[in-house]
Amino acid sequence: MARAPENRRQALVKLAWVGIWLIYLGAPVDDLVHGHHAVAVTVVAALGLAAFVVAYLALVFLRTNTGERPERWVYGILAAQTALSLVLSAALGKNWLVLFVYVAVACGAALPAKESRWAVPAVTALLAAVGAWQDTGADLYPALLIPSLLGGFAMVGVKQLVRTMRELREARETVAHLAATEERLRLARDLHDLLGHSLSLITLKSELAGRMLPDRPQDAAQQVADIEKVSRQALVDVREAVSGYRRPTLAAELAAARGALASAGIAARLPAAERPAGLGSQGEGALAWALREAVTNVVRHSGAATCVVALRVEDGLATLTVSDDGRGPVADQRSGNGLTGLTERLILAGGTLDTGRSGDGGFRLTATVPADPAPVGADRRGGGG
Fold first, then answer.
1. What digits encode the pLDDT tens for the residues 317-340?
2. Could you read off the pLDDT of 214-228 as tens digits, one per residue?
3. Residues in domain Histidine kinase/HSP90-like ATPase (predicted)?
4. Fewest Cβ atoms closer than 10 Å to its Cβ: which of 66, 372, 374, 380?
5. What DSSP element (H or E) covers 80?
6. Is residue 184 in a domain?
7. pTM
């Protein structure tokens, strides 16, 4: 309705729908056939009626339902329709008053709401004036006033409904696109964090196995066994990440961090491997990802001899701090993909990420998330993910 068809099928459906309402032009057609007018008058009137119908169809098919101001030809067609209605009804009688109803409907369909609000009543008022003059018996034109008003304003409402439905459809497509984008970002973050940690550990253990192989084959075999174990776990983690069920726990990540730091020859001071009281599963998952990323960076880049992990919950906030005594942050160094993804994770959990130089001159990472005491019991009963 009030929208240009986009293909032949839509054009045929719209023509059939509009054609149903053209049946009300039966009164003018009957007057042409049985009105006993002169031949010249009948021919001119028939041409005028044909021009009126063509103009009406042009508005219905070509005027799109947009919030933009109508083109000049729209106003020209409406003015021509009004003039034809006035001339034909004034010259040929009350049977032609129905043309004003079509003009009112066309105004409602083709004009913006602000303009149609006065255009429809104006056309109806013109119908009332001409009808009072032509239909002295007052048996026809009063019955056309209500259809003129209702038809015109109904088109305004239908046009607004169509516009709203179109906006809702576009909004739904936008939401679907955003959801797909967020899922791609989630998968990219998970794979980066999972594989970065696992591959770093595999690299370390491979180097250890290579150094042990000539003189300590049994120790080298143990490192190879650890490599196989890490590889299998990485495969499981990737499958869970792709399926959307991956949520690490602090206990698992602390155990993994202890092993990774030991393999790298870095002395570690870690808290107890349990979830602190007052920390929900979502916050635990975010801090677990932060711990994994921080330890991976310590192992790969820091050159540190000691790594300290602290975890506390106070004042409604859970804070994880990972610091080392290595090289420390480099001036003007941009954050890598890992820290960027970690920042996004913490933001989704309502938390923040802060990095800087530690007290020992190394690197410090601090992740903070809101603590939620209410669901702790439920989280402990339901597991950490």
1. 999 999 999 888 876 555 666 788
2. 778 787 788 888 888
3. 287-371
4. 374
5. helix 72-92
6. no
7. 0.48
